[in-house]
Amino acid sequence: MKKPHIVILGAGYGGMMTAAKLQKKLHINEAEITIVNKNDYHYQTTWLHENAAGTLHHDRTKIRIKDVINSSKVNIVLDEVLCIKPEEKVVKLANAELNYDVLVIGLGFEAATFGIPGLDDHAFTIANINNARLIREHLDYNFACYHNEIDKKAARLNIVIGGGGFTGIEFAGELANRIPHLCEEYDIEKTQVRILVVEGARTVLPGFDERLVEYAMNSLESRGVEFINNAILKECKKDSIVYEKYGKHHEIPTMTTIWAAGVRANSVVEESGFETNRGKVEVRCDMRTPDYDDVFVIGDCSMIINKETGRPFPPTAQIAIQQAETVACNVKEKIRGGELKPFIPNLQGTIASLGNDDAIAEVFGHKVFGWKAAVMKKMSDNRYLLKLGGLGLLLKKGKFNFFY
Ligand SMILES: Cc1cc2nc3c(=O)[nH]c(=O)nc-3n(C[C@H](O)[C@H](O)[C@H](O)COP(=O)(O)OP(=O)(O)OC[C@H]3O[C@@H](n4cnc5c(N)ncnc54)[C@H](O)[C@@H]3O)c2cc1C
Fold first, then answer.
1. What is the pTM of this model?
2. Domains and CATH numbers, the chain
3. The pairing of beta strand 231-236 with beta strand 240-245
4. 283-293 pLDDT per residue, tens
5. Which of 111, 147, 190, 344 is most buried, judging by how many CB atoms fall within 10 Å of its CB?
6. Which residues line ligand 1 (CB under 6 A)?
């Protein structure tokens, strides 16, 4: 008898954890498992701001899929998913077509620019390894150009971050730590460099405790970061940005705008005709789509409403990993004819990094800041590595620079 074919799309937090769990849960004779990903590596999206700022080399963030997934148990297909045809149970890839019996969609997020003029053409986003590498190179290039031009351009040394949410602030923290090194390398006075965070709301880091937000802003300001709150980014040009504050337009010369204020689910999901809510699939409690019993959706492509607040749970790696654990159990049950269980999130808290040795955290009801929060962040990163690939992966890729 033909074995059922389980296809997992995306080797991100959700996809990798699903595959890692399924290769242990199912016997090789029970099902054929395939994971499809654009690259031969998984990357830790939550470290990308460090790669972009240049404080951590991107090779540290990449994990070869084969180092975690046993290719004798799981087929690893390196290809791009173009669309899914759920009625036919087919996935169209750039170079092939796959039939499935059970599908797990974990294709993550992409940047959303909300039609703001110029952002698609002139701004950078921190969405994957290649974007992050480009930002690091671009920063180096502009610093290198500065002294080689007779007409010195402030735009080369002004760095604008659009959005003071999680990603924007974490990037600002890393950048603030990297600038002194860049200045030393390229003989530039530190006072000539500006890092500006343009935020539409009254304050940055919405959702965090106000005292922690104040701590974060003070910490970043002491390292040269400027905040422009209540300001809406109106246009991004090749060498400037325009924002509106209290009805007035202002222009800042810059050749480096990092757009960190919007993400959406991978557009493949919506374009494949799944019923979506703001681009995401509002999944059933067992993580299946409302209309297909054989399709599970996890991570940033899925949406679950928090019954306590009536709002969706925020898209995080923490949730994607927990969902993957439930989905791996449910896929196994589906293959064996058992009962599927509901996904119950176990939110442990939030930690926002402000650089290597500083962070703010709200964990298990406690508010923590400074080096203690930074240590917690690294422990949480290390915990993921241990869970995904055991001690070997932790020792290879873990963060052990706790006190410097
Ligand atoms: C800078 C930054 C910092 C963050 N910090 C935190 C944090 O501290 N804590 C936290 O919990 N969350 C954080 N997040 C959010 C978190 O990273 C995401 O919620 C998480 O990555 C979602 O996981 P996922 O499995 O849905 O997708 P991802 O981890 O994004 O993986 C998607 C995978 O699919 C692949 N893929 C995409 N499209 C295709 C295609 N068409 N064909 C084939 N493969 C494809 C990608 O290459 C990737 O491997 C951060 C995000 C960013 C950008």
1. 0.95
2. 5-111+264-349+390-397 (3.50.50.100), 119-261 (3.50.50.60)
3. antiparallel
4. 999 999 999 99
5. 111
6. 10-15, 36-39, 42, 45-46, 48-49, 80-81, 106-109, 126, 166-167, 170, 266, 268, 299-300, 315-318, 320
